[in-house]
Design brief:
heterotrimer, A mainly alpha, B mainly alpha, C alpha/beta, A: mainly alpha, B: mainly alpha, 2 domains, 21 helices, 80% helix, 0% strand, binds sodium ion
Amino acid sequence: MTTVTQAVDRALGWVLVALMSIAVLNVLWQVFTRFVLADPSRFTDELARYLLIWIGLLGASYAVGGHMHLAIDLLPSRLTGRRRFYLSVLIEASVFLVALSVLVIGGVRLVTLTLTLGQTSAALHVPLGYVYVALPLSGLLMMFFSVGAVGRHYAELHGSTEPAVKSPELH
Amino acid sequence: MEWVDILLLGGSLVVLLALGVPVAFAIGISTVLTMLLSIKTGPALTTMAQRIATGLDSFTLLAIPFFILAGQLMNRGGIARRLIDFAKALVGGLPGGLAHVNILAAMLFAAISGSSVATASAVGSIMGPRMEEDGYERSFGAAVNITAATTGLIIPPSNILIVFSLASGGVSITALFLAGYLPGILVGLSLMLVAAVLATQRKYPVGRRTSGREVVKRFLAALPSLLMLVVVMGGIVSGVFTATEAAAVAVLYALVLALIYKEITLDDLPQILLSTSATTAVVLLLVGTSIGMSWILAYENIPQNVSLALVGLTESKILILLIINAILLAVGVFMDITPAVLIFTPVFSPIMAQLGVDPTHFGIIMVLNLCIGLCTPPVGTVLFVGVGVAQTSITRVVRPLLPLYIAMIAALMIVTYVPGLSLWLPRLFGAQ
Amino acid sequence: GTADDVTVVKLAHGLDPTHPVHRAMQFLAERVREESGRTMRIDIYPSEQLGTERQALELLQIGSLGMTKVSAAVLENFAAPFKVLSLPYIFRDETHKWAVLEGAIGREMLDMAAQFRLRGLCFYDAGSRSFYTKDRPIVTPQDLEGLKIRTQESATATRMVTLLGGSATPIAWGELYTALQQGVVDGAENNPPSFHLSRHYEVARYYSLNEHTGVPDVLLVSTVVWDDLTEQERQWLQHAADESAQYQKLLWQEATTEALRMVQADGVQVIRPDKAPFVDMLAPMYETYRNEPAVYSLIERIRAAAPVTGDQR
Ligand code: NA
Ligand code: NA
């Protein structure tokens, strides 16, 4: 289980590194084509926007894995033992619920809708459905990471020394 | 009828947040629950998914990760340290020297970064340990850093002023940026005043005074970093770059500078890019779900009804501005600045126009106001980041924050009732 | 009170409340309220409160929003025949345009959207687009030679400017003022009210009313929502929409006259060039649709429709 989580985590990390690098280069290319080539690129604006959707959503699932989402930790930090475990399960269940209902179910419905209606983007002519695939994909990853987190919390409850929370690193 | 929506939305949000559910997910659940009151399940879930995705579908928003990335590079690349050294040479000799250094360094960093989060983490991570070594309480250092970092959103470039420009239907970004300088400096000075009083009371150490030669030396060391301000703001004000392009150029500039300073190598880049993506994504998911929430609020006419009821109380411009400030302060306590700006700008803008308040001025009032909210629990991004880098807790940092809130509110009142403070620079540069 | 007995349809759009389209929608809402004896209500959300034009369209398809207004150009992404409306000089003049849009062809096009979960209710006037330039007036197509012209992100618009010898440059509408000011582009094109409201006339002092395209707006209702209405409610809505369309045309004409008066008062040179050379140079655009029978037959039907006395070409 742990090795699978690590592998997914690492792959996701490298995807994010790639997306962010492309995003920066893309906008620099926009500046370059306008000032140096005096022939503004037509695709950079749209590519930038779609990259941001992917970075935001995949990054958000990565952040679920790393427990990086902002939360008010007053109650969890005051509980210990079994109670803390139950609250952790409740919190992970909330993440799981949003990921499943909004990102996976809502996302799949949105992808299907835009694909069946054949909506394509203005500049790159990509089907918009492909852009929205980031939603269910991110949702599935969030579900995966939240289940993994419950597993770690359970192990912690039963005396594992491995920390339930990890920091973002490329292994 | 709308009261059911308000109760369900507000009530579920408070419960989920109190339980410790991550804010973005709590907003997601509360929003979907409220949607279900008037929209069928399938369309409601699809709408929420669409709101999240299209909320991120913005070229302008991309400025945010870029400014964060530039901030990370500047932080690791020794830029923050050089700015701090320069600030120390200037104000380190005052009572509560390091508190002033933190505030001034935050303002200098603010002037090259578009985000208060970047400012809080870049300056706080260096200043926190230094202040603690000098005998400052950790929570006091964190409180000073958190409030000073909000100048990152008032002194341009500023991500949130970009969001305001979008939400207001096109108030000039250049005018807003120029309008932020003086109010930002005013906030900094107000914080310094309070810090000086507190430092004297608590007998915090006074640093040594710096010689003129030392000041010049520090200035020259900080100059390449300060030149970034010229590239970014000069580029935007002259209209050469959009804010996002300026942010991308800032990334390149910071990277080159960091490589020259040999504080990072190309091998460090993947880690920096990853941590930027994750940090940004946390903000972006919040933006996405908040945009969903503001959508259901607008759909149920909630902001309009609430604000109309309140503004129906009086016709006095002074009082209405006071009421709006009070509403925004209350909103800021519970809501992050980005969704608050997105939700309330369209609500209050018509009232402001009716009262003859310049939209650029209103942008500064709103952002400065919500900046206070960024430093308050339960929802305060800068508070979270500031507490995080200082490795302290929200509970501990609230007490030293109280006098600093008062300083910020005083600055807010001056900015609200003296329009010239915001509008003088934009008018000078003809950006209005 | 009796709120639960009222059928509410939510209508969102991206325009300002002072815009003729918004005022026509208020008229529509008022007509629905009166005709239904207050049993049906249209709630209007202006200024992109519920999303941009494209997002609102998607919300209609999702079924969480009732109605919206989009440019007919947006619908070409769904139904290819809508491309026809973006073709330069597809209409000979205003009379021809409304004869087509309010006749059988128009109704057919409005119904065409049904397979995309959208139902067209009526067309609103969005005027005619014309070129405005910084350094020299456009009197003949040759004047466009070598000029960088900001165009919308559409293949048709790009092709049109290219055929006229200009260089099509995509720039966001919000950034266009600065782009004109700094000479990033030499000109742009839009209808008179937009030329005026965007204050582009402050930097582009020549406005040539060559009126190349006249893409209308379309008022749409979600079929998900439409299917939930009673037959009576549908009639009220359709009838009010038709009435609002007539009212909107009057408002638009007023806005156009007023905009032209204002820019001229400011010293902008308004030119009324001979359209024939523009029509001729753009003729090849029609030929490319020969291999798209659905589109091409529609072009031919529009051209044959309601011949107007006195040849404008
Ligand atoms: Na800033
Ligand atoms: Na707050």
